[in-house]
Amino acid sequence: AMAAERALAMATCTAPVNIAVIKYWGKRDTDLILPINSSLSVTLHQDQLKTTTTAAASRDFTEDRLWLNGKEADVGHPRVQACLREVRRLARKRRGGGEDTAALSLSYKIHIASENDFPTAAGLASSAAGYACLVSVLARLYGVEEELSEVARRGSGSACRSMFGGFVQWQRGERPDGTDSLALQVAPETHWPELRVLVLVKKPVSSTAGMQTSVETSPLLKHRAEVVVPERLAQMMRHIRERDFEGFGQLAMRDSNQFHATCLDTFPPIFYLTDLSRHIIALAHRYNAHHGHTKVAYTFDAGPNAVIFALADTVAEFVEVVRRSFPPATNGDQ
Amino acid sequence: AMAAERALAMATCTAPVNIAVIKYWGKRDTDLILPINSSLSVTLHQDQLKTTTTAAASRDFTEDRLWLNGKEADVGHPRVQACLREVRRLARKRRGGGEDTAALSLSYKIHIASENDFPTAAGLASSAAGYACLVSVLARLYGVEEELSEVARRGSGSACRSMFGGFVQWQRGERPDGTDSLALQVAPETHWPELRVLVLVKKPVSSTAGMQTSVETSPLLKHRAEVVVPERLAQMMRHIRERDFEGFGQLAMRDSNQFHATCLDTFPPIFYLTDLSRHIIALAHRYNAHHGHTKVAYTFDAGPNAVIFALADTVAEFVEVVRRSFPPATNGDQ
Q1: Does A260 touch chain B (CB under 8 A)?
Q2: Could you confirm whether domain A1-189 is CATH 3.10.20.90?
Q3: Could you tell me which residue ranges the Mvd1 C-terminal domain spans (chains A, B) (predicted)?
Q4: A150 in contact with B, Cβ within 8 Å
Q5: Which 3-state string (H, E, C) describes B6-52?
Q6: Do B254 and A267 make contact, defined as CB atoms within 8 angstroms?
Q7: Could you tell me the fold of the domain covering A192-327?
Q8: Whole-model pTM?
Q9: CB-based contact (8 Å) between B316 and chain A?
Q10: Through-space distance between the first and last CA atoms of chain A, rounded to whole angstroms
Q11: CB contact under 8 A, B274 and A275
């Protein structure tokens, strides 16, 4: 039986970046990565930004190894190990007690290589796409077809949302073991084809992730998670269902602002918005005021980039407005 | 009887600036200026920053007039008129139905001149000192000795806190007519003689006062007013009573940050903190971390200045640290 086992197997996957419009900030369980509130995101097209990961398993490999953008990285990282362990557990469960001799041995060492087609340090939710891709490629390698967003969540919370295209909710869940803290597709991307996402890439600034400091010190974050987000999530689902850009954009901006407000209410305070972000925010509000309704909406994550939502017919004009407002020295390329 | 009336009377008063450590932001009644939460401030010494106002009444004056820092201003401003009306009402009440022929006629026109010894546009709560001073000088002119913080509140909410020295609470009050929305001295300035206040004056930036927009749009401000501030106010009173700088400073910083968080949660968002404010905040946290406890505390109002609290023995060292961190081009003079 041993001789019939495959000696080498390889798989490749890609995974997309997602942009939250109802933000995730704060865990109620840091080990299982269970959030204090549900969140909702828009998954970007993979033709612009994606992660590509290849995994190979072989009986000839003597150790697990991992490369990120061509540089060897620590395969022993607890979150990488959590993903590996969980996918293998699902594979074992799937095979049951029987010996599927055609299946790849779960004891083989693996080599994993992952590449982003965007700057990793740019705060572009790269860990979300990265872990979604890692889990997908491992599942393909081991022939696992189960719901995998729960596993991706163990790599990076928001990675679970990159397991689906279109509009995706990561539901908070209630169970202490996290089995109901999953991503669910709210609508496929075909649901709202006119919606566009612009990413204004800024120079990365160093930022320490202070999510748990916020949970421990911000009274406003607690209120946000318990009271504000549940209402907003229901509202956002309705705006998406109705393809209501006015409602979608307004709420996306409000939620981005509230997320940054809870960062400021953290002690010591966390700042992600800079004077440049303020100018982009002011520009978006001026642009909308000029047109008398919401034509563009901004959202800012825990990093330096601005993300702009607009409908297809607005993109060219707004890009021109941004070009004119920000000289080449301060704006990015994309 | 008419001939016995005084033909001219004059009075001069000064009033101090106050710095809130539990912030006021948002009115529940914009006409009576009733706040959504109680607030607490430290009144500054008048040897550094004060307003001086002189008022004269004469039967020879043909109209009411007002000068602010040497420039004539609109005496018909509703808030100026509210203060005038309320002080005259108290004077009338005091005199009862009788004719006090030695008293200044309430029907004489008045001339008022007010001077700040600090830049008016610098956001240094100048309207607080200004209205406190206006009410004090009118009260002196008309011989009114009643509790006047309620009247000062009608000029500018925080002006009621400038009617007392030391540590002052502006209690929210419950009555719809505002008669219990008063300032009360928590402790005199002699209670904590080592406490120092540094004002780092920055160039003013234009800012629109968006207090009522916050009340209407920020869910976090509502939670702050209803839940967070009542707890914090009790804590702050205890820290002051115990002269506990660690507790006082920590809470002052947290409350400043939370106030700015609610500004950011306002829609459209309001920004008072700039990249320079962020640097001062980071500097204060680094300085405290270096010393292993809270030696300095910052607070920022709806304007460009940073205010630093420290005990007397820390001032010289921290001023030196600020001087070294901010080249003359970016720091102020004081």
Answers
A1: yes
A2: no
A3: 202-333
A4: no
A5: CCEEEEEEEEECEEEEECCCCEEECCCCEECCCEEEEECCCCCCEEE
A6: yes
A7: Alpha-Beta Plaits (3.30.70)
A8: 0.85
A9: no
A10: 54
A11: yes
